[in-house]
């Protein structure tokens, strides 16, 4: 089958590449000429483990290509996916659908034969109907169906998530569209991966409801971690104890400095706006958003408190700035709140991250900190070390070497990567979240 993917961000590039690896012919389209030129040369606009090799493989096989010309790319296409950004609007937090609407209008103008138009972007309930109306208005003679097919890709493990999904959700209105989607996903459904076939509105809501629940689960364990500190309990054992309950599960029960990234902050706000528009507010999610925002500020103050309120002139080694490991994504990362608080208090920052330095430098500025891709260089002469991201490289930190390099001895572990006894044995003072130490 021939597939066109509109948008070459995380969702579009990963989805298009994985479809091509299934044997479909895929053209990834983007208006950004520089991005397309880069992709043709093998230069990726994002960091995602394994994606570069998969792209190279399928480009060489002739199944994957890149273009800025949507009309030409849509010739003989069976399906065209809308995988553009839907960022939260700054004025009210609602999902900005302007890129989706623009893509729908351009698709309508380019359509020459029956085509299934697939909403892959994360969009509010009712967007598929709006896309349909836009295409009908743009091209009254168009023969098409609109399908909702939300993505469930985690940055850092997106290829595995696409190739081994927990579920595939499609919202369809006609058997004709359903047949196209079944053929597209046959390499997965033939292996037994479950597909949910439902209405378009239901599929749209599944995505928001899932992400909001996971955000709520993270926020819950963060608050339990705070309680652990007051009653001398260990949150790692609490997490294990409740996570072994199959009704709850162990995932997303690791406390930290608050959730961030491209999905949870945006999708929880969008769900709130959707619920309010239907006059059915979801108070649990409203509280989740408020608590998470406050937590990022609280973590900055926590570091200051551990340092007895005085970091002026002290060197702080920051280990990790991206919102999670295995990505260069800085969107809504806790570091965006924590680092400015430390800087304002007079700290001298040296920042290490395996992949996020370029984006961090763009956001903070080159003069904001000393930036390094060498973790031990960051630790040299540091008064305090602060762990913000759960990179494997940081987990493998040689604690004895860290102690030798640092001038101080405080290790503030906001991801609970280390065991308190091991840190103490190396001569460092350990400060985790909800841990007994």
Descriptive account of the structure:
The protein is an alpha/beta fold and 437 residues long. It has helices at 10-21, 33-40, 51-60, 70-73, 98-110, 127-138, 158-163, 175-184, 186-189, 200-231, 235-243, 264-277, 283-306, 335-344, 357-364, 375-379, 392-395, 399-405, 420-425, and strands at residues 2-6, 25-29, 64-67, 79-82, 115-119, 144-148, 168-171, 195-198, 315-319, 348-352, 370-372, 384-387, 410-413, 429-431. It is 45% helix and 14% strand. The protein is globular, with a radius of gyration of 23 Å. The chain has 19 helices and 14 strands. The longest helix is centred in the middle third of the chain and has 32 residues, at 200-231. β4 (79-82), α5 and β5 (115-119) form a beta-alpha-beta unit. The mean pLDDT is 96. The protein folds into 3 domains: 2-198, Rossmann fold; 208-242 and 255-290, N-(1-d-carboxylethyl)-l-norvaline Dehydrogenase, domain 2; 297-431, Rossmann fold. The strands form 3 sheets. It has a 6-stranded parallel beta sheet with strand order 3-2-1-4-5-6, with helices on both faces. It has a 6-stranded parallel beta sheet with strand order 11-10-9-12-13-14.
Topology:
Blueprint: E1 2-6, H1 10-21, E2 25-29, H2 33-40, H3 51-60, E3 64-67, H4 70-73, E4 79-82, H5 98-110, E5 115-119, H6 127-138, E6 144-148, H7 158-163, E7 168-171, H8 175-184, H9 186-189, E8 195-198, H10 200-231, H11 235-243, H12 264-277, H13 283-306, E9 315-319, H14 335-344, E10 348-352, H15 357-364, E11 370-372, H16 375-379, E12 384-387, H17 392-395, H18 399-405, E13 410-413, H19 420-425, E14 429-431
Parallel strand pairs: 1-2, 1-4, 2-3, 4-5, 5-6, 7-8, 9-10, 9-12, 10-11, 12-13, 13-14
Helix pairs in contact: 1-3, 5-6, 10-12, 10-13, 13-14
């Amino acid at each position: 089958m021939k597939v066109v993917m509109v948008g070459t961000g995380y969702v579009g590039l990963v989805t298009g590449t994985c479809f091509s690896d299934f044997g479909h012919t895929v053209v990834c389209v983007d208006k950004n000429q520089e991005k397309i030129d880069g992709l043709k040369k093998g230069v990726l606009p994002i960091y995602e483990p394994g994606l570069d090799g998969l792209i190279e493989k399928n480009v060489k096989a002739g199944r994957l290509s890149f273009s800025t010309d949507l009309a030409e790319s849509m010739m003989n296409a069976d399906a065209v996916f809308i995988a553009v950004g839907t960022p939260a609007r700054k004025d009210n937090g609602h999902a900005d659908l302007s890129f989706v609407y623009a893509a729908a209008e351009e698709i309508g103008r380019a359509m020459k034969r029956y085509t299934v138009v697939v909403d892959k972007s994360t969009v509010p309930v009712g967007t598929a109907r709006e896309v349909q109306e836009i295409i009908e208005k743009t091209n009254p003679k168009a023969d098409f169906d609109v399908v909702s097919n939300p993505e469930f890709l985690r940055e850092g493990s997106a290829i595995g998530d696409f190739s081994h999904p927990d579920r595939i959700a499609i919202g369809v209105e006609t058997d004709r569209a359903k047949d196209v989607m079944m053929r597209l996903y046959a390499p997965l459904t033939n292996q037994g991966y479950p597909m949910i076939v439902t209405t378009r509105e239901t599929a749209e809501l599944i995505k928001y409801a899932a992400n909001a629940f996971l955000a709520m689960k993270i926020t819950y364990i963060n608050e339990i971690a705070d309680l652990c500190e007051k009653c001398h309990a260990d949150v790692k054992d609490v997490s294990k104890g409740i996570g072994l309950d199959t009704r709850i599960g162990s995932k997303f029960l690791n406390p930290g400095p608050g959730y961030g990234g491209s999905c949870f902050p945006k999708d929880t706000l969008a769900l709130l706006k959707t619920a309010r528009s239907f006059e059915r507010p979801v108070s649990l999610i409203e509280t989740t958003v408020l608590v998470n925002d406050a937590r990022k500020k609280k973590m900055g103050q926590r570091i200051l408190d551990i340092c007895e309120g005085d970091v002026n002139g002290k060197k702080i080694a920051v280990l990790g700035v991206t919102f999670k490991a295995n990505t260069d994504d800085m969107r809504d990362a806790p570091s965006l709140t924590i680092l400015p608080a430390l800087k304002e208090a007079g700290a001298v920052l040296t920042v290490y991250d395996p992949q996020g330095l370029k984006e961090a430098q763009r956001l903070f500025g080159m003069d904001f900190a000393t930036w390094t891709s060498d973790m031990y260089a960051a630790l040299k002469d540091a008064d305090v070390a602060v762990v913000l991201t759960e990179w494997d490289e940081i987990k493998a930190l040689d604690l004895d070497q860290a102690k030798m390099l640092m001038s101080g001895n405080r290790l503030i572990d906001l991801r609970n990567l280390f065991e308190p006894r091991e840190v103490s044995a190396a001569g460092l003072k350990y400060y985790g979240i909800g841990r007994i130490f």
